[in-house]
Amino acid sequence: MNVYYIDNNGQKQQIRFNYVPNTLGGYNYYAICPKCNSRRRILYLKNGCLICRDCAKLNYRSQQISKSGILFEKASKLLRDKLEYNGDFKPIHLLNNTIKLCKPKGMHIETYAEYLKEFDELSKQYQKQVMREIRAIINRSQNP
Length: 144
Ligand SMILES: [Zn+2]
Description:
With about 140 residues, this protein is an alpha+beta fold. About 45% of the residues lie in helices and about 20% in strands. The protein has helices at about 55-65, 65-80, 90-95, 110-140, and strands at about 1-5, 10-20, 25-30, 40, 45, 50.
């Protein structure tokens, strides 16, 4: 059995239902999660689509990347891709400015200086954002 609904993007979505005989008589209906195909009694509306609780949570986490997390990823990408840094890189390195960089071979000094400036700017933004997020946590703790 199929049920159709229109999601947030105006797309027609299909939910399949299966039924399983109940030992006490009759049948129990189950929805099939369109994402993972598992059998569920309840589906959750996430971004306009009906999915199971597990898939909804997964989605939730991946979309809940913090602002500091985005800045960290940007800094990390700049380090790895442009500055050819292969060492350890953790939030603490960005917080304490303890990354030792060398100009990659063959890179123009001007280009290197630009990347360094960009990295420095990202570090500063990151440090500010982390402080903001920590403050927010503290404020929430005080005012539940
Ligand atoms: Zn699922």
